[in-house]
User: Which sequence fits this backbone?
């Protein structure tokens, strides 16, 4: 915690410098709307949330924000790499899949730290008590490029010495953590891999849905899904403006509404090694997969 | 089936109208419900085709990509819709009969057998609607890019259709019931109004305690020619009956005088016979005035003769006094009345040299409740008739018996019996043509007025006889 606060102070200074740089940027660039990528994997299409976030961006940067919503991480990453968008809220896993091309520019802080876990969930009345009981299941993943919604479970199975395609009778992707919860709650799937943060938020916002499931297994802590930009765009006014707006999100009423809706504490600068645990899982999968 | 209590016309006609309305209502309701059913099947077919078409288009690409979640999401959203006719369960089944995905995965999990689902579903092209069920299961092949990729089975909620049929049924039932009620009441009121003159006519025809009277001209419904004709015909009928009754009464009266006239000869003879003897006695007294014994004997003889004459004249007067039932102060029947009748008929039988057998029971107790006049008239007429039928030197007789609350009067004769043409005069109420035998009709009328009965039969001696039974006891007369 101490480390991230220290980092955060440094990041705030950097963000302030970025804001100053942004104010010196060419006039045409400052008028262009900020292009922000999203996926339903993490954020559902909550127009109220997006409206309040847009309001905050306008107040903080004086610029409108244009959302680019795609179904998968891959699509959003493609937009990033093509320079179609300035930044996107992604996951640590796709970030690490493009080392040198993508970098985290901001990381959300949840319950005091920029960390989260993956959950393995089952229907609330299912008798299973451990991972091995899920053999032969129809399993719901979130996104092939999701850490909590795919990578963690695959890596865990490999750790246990089984291959996922042999362990589960069948699996499918729902392209949304909320969809994983729905799939398990409706018994379309007998188990599912889901983002622990999303699951906990849903337990507050949609208790009836979450009550039809239960957590069978929790992973270790991993770096929270960050806001990502390409390395080339990292110093641009647009990216700097986005980082500045996120760092000062609690300064506006709209920003505070966004934090309340997302149940986040704020945004911080990513510390070095924030996603090392995810990199370790990737290596495991690469080695044994 | 005949009703135990016959219903009046004013009730019968509205009831027939109501029954016809019920019949018509049932037929019309059946036609409406059948048309509604056909319309619902058409509507159901159209809606189902739209639903299948929309889902097939939406599912196609995801079936091709085996995107379980998107397929589920599409089917799930389709079944979450609200509305009258909506899918409540949708299941996609592959070519091997395995469930690809269902909107109710808890019922039909992925990969389970879906053959039964296909088997119980009706082909979309051949919808048969089972109105008893709340849901209908339809199926159709999902074709994507010209290739069949599975069978889509959708269970539709058709409760709204059933509810619509129920509503329509109730509306028809209540509407028909209201129409029947209104028309029945209106029909009853109308019939009451139409039949009012007929009821008036009926009332006039059934005047209690009196003869029917013609309806006054003012009461004849002039605006209704048919009813007016009926009233006029009724009035004509009543007048004709009155005229006939009056004529019969006159004829009966005349018959009484005729019978009295027939008696007159006998009476004259009866008076003349003793009169000669009496005059002779007077001469004898005059001749032997100085002989007290002869005078005494003569006076005795005169006394008996004069008393006989007095009896004859009194009886004749009694008979003439009338026969219209027992009026106030009129004498009750007694044995003396039969003695009088004997006295009256004997000259007639003597004249014809007939043998008269006279048997009157000594006990006639209670018979004084009967009026003497009508009974005397009955017996006298029957005796005169018997005397006429048996002819010269014939036999006739009377037998009067008190028998179990009845007074039995039998008049027999040695004649050939009643001619058939005469019998109806005594035994029926058929109209009597003027002529002979009016006395017999008078006998019938009198017996009826006394509550008695008449029959023809044979006497113990095998002679033709007329038996009249008159009730004497109060309960028998009631």
Assistant:
């Amino acid at each position: 915690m101490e480390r991230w606060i220290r980092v955060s102070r440094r990041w705030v200074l950097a963000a302030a410098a970025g804001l100053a740089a942004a104010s010196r940027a060419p006039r045409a660039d400052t008028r262009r709307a900020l292009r922000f990528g999203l996926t339903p994997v993490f954020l559902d299409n909550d127009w109220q949330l997006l409206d309040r976030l847009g309001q905050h961006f306008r107040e903080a940067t004086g610029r409108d924000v244009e959302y680019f919503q795609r179904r998968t991480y891959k699509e959003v990453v493609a937009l990033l790499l093509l320079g179609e968008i300035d930044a996107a809220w992604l996951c640590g896993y796709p970030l690490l899949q493009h080392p040198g091309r993508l970098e985290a520019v901001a990381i959300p802080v949840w319950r005091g730290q920029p960390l989260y876990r993956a959950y393995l969930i089952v229907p609330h009345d299912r008798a299973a008590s451990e991972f091995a009981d899920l053999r032969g299941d129809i399993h719901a993943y979130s996104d092939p490029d999701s850490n909590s919604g795919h990578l963690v479970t695959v890596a865990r199975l490999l750790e246990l010495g089984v291959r996922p395609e042999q362990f589960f009778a069948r699996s499918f992707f729902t392209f949304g953590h909320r969809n994983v919860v729905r799939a398990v709650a409706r018994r379309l799937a007998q188990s599912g891999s889901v983002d622990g943060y999303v699951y906990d938020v849903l337990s507050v916002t949609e208790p009836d849905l979450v009550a039809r499931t239960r957590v069978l297994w929790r992973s270790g802590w991993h770096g929270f899904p960050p806001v990502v930009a390409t390395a080339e765009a990292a110093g641009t006014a647009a990216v700097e403006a986005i980082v500045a707006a996120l760092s000062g999100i609690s300064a506006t009423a709209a920003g505070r509404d966004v934090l309340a809706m997302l149940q986040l504490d704020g945004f911080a600068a990513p510390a070095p090694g924030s996603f090392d645990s995810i990199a370790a899982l990737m290596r495991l999968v690469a080695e044994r997969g | 089936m005949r009703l135990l209590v016959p219903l009046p016309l004013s009730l019968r006609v509205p009831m027939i109208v109501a029954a016809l309305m019920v019949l018509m209502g049932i037929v019309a309701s059946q036609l409406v419900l059948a048309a509604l059913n056909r319309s619902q099947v058409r509507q159901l077919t159209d809606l189902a085709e739209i639903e299948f078409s929309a889902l097939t288009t939406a599912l196609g690409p995801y079936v091709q990509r085996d995107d379980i979640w998107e397929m589920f999401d599409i089917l799930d959203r389709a079944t979450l819709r609200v509305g009258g006719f909506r899918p409540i369960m949708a299941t996609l089944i592959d070519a091997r009969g395995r469930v690809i995905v269902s909107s109710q995965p808890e019922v039909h999990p992925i990969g389970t057998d879906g053959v039964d689902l296909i088997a119980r579903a009706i082909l979309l092209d051949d919808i048969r609607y089972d109105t008893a069920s709340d849901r209908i299961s339809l199926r159709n092949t999902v074709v994507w890019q010209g290739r069949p990729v599975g069978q889509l089975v959708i269970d539709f909620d058709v409760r709204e259709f059933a509810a619509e049929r129920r509503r329509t049924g109730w509306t028809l039932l209540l509407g028909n019931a209201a129409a029947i009620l209104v028309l029945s009441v209106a029909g009853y009121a109308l019939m009451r109004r139409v039949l009012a003159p007929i009821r008036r006519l009926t009332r006039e025809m059934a005047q209690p305690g009196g003869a029917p009277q013609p309806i006054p001209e003012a009461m004849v419904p002039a605006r209704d020619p048919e009813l007016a004709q009926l009233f006029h015909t009724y009035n004509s009928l009543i007048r004709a009956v009155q005229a006939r009754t009056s004529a019969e009464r006159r004829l009966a009266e005349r018959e009484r005088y005729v019978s009295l006239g027939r008696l007159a000869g006998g009476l004259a003879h009866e008076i003349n016979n003793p009169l000669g003897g009496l005059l002779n006695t007077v001469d004898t007294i005059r001749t032997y005035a100085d002989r007290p014994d002869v005078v005494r004997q003569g006076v005795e003889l005169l006394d008996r003769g004069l008393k006989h004459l007095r009896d004859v004249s009194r009886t004749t007067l009694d008979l003439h006094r009338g026969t219209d039932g027992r009026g106030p102060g009129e004498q009750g029947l007694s044995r003396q009345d039969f003695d009088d009748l004997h006295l009256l008929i004997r000259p007639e039988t003597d004249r014809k040299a007939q043998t008269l057998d006279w048997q009157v029971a000594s006990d006639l107790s209670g018979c004084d409740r009967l009026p003497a006049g009508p009974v005397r008239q009955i017996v006298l007429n029957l005796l005169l008739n018997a005397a006429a039928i048996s002819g010269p030197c014939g036999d006739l007789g009377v037998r009067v018996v008190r028998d179990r609350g009845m007074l039995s009067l039998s008049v027999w004769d040695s004649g050939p019996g009643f001619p058939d043409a005469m019998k109806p005069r005594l035994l029926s109420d058929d109209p009597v043509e003027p002529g002979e035998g009016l006395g017999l009709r008078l006998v019938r009328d009198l017996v009826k007025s006394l509550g008695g009965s008449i029959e023809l039969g044979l006497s113990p001696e095998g002679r033709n006889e007329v038996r009249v039974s008159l009730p004497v006891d109060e309960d028998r007369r009631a």
DSSP finds 13 helices and eleven strands in chain A.
